[in-house]
Design goal:
Helix content is 78%, strand content 0%. It has 192 residues and is an all-alpha fold. The protein starts with a helix and ends in an 8-residue tail after the last helix. Keywords: Membrane, Transmembrane, Transmembrane helix.
Amino acid sequence: MEAFLVSTAIVTLAEMGDKTQLLSLVLAARFRKPWPIVLGIFVATLANHALAGAVGSWVTTVLGPQVLRWVLGLSFIAMAVWMLIPDKLDDDGDGAAPRFGVFGTTLVAFFLAEMGDKTQVATVMLAAQYSAYFWVVAGTTLGMMLANAPVVWLGDRLVKKVPIRVVHLVSALIFLVLGLLALFAGDATPLA
């Protein structure tokens, strides 16, 4: 259960102001059809994070406990630094009707935007940290939905009221603490 709660909290915070959250806002403004957009975000996130979680779980079978501890610790600290760099979204759309429908366009755009993104990298690291693949993927997916679904429905009003810089600082602090815990834990086993 700890893996689920930590994964949900970290990804919800990490997603605030992220390019995929900005993409959610752009899709909502462009298509004005919240249900297919939210469903597309959910399916894309579930597929992307299931793959990322599988990579994270696989890494634990390849690396020894000492190496894994250092890789995870340094990765979490690097993620803390990355959280302090704001994301931007290049809007190169021409306003044309979506070729694959609203759901299909959202699914493809969101899946591709999430590749190599902070939350995908966090999912890999969390799956490696905890021996709870299902709970990590469920938590990171829920975190994405908690951050993105309200943006689709409430749009610009919600984004303007959230102090993104503070959210990024809190996220960075959480990643830093996780990194330090991984590096300086008394034993070489994951923290789960």
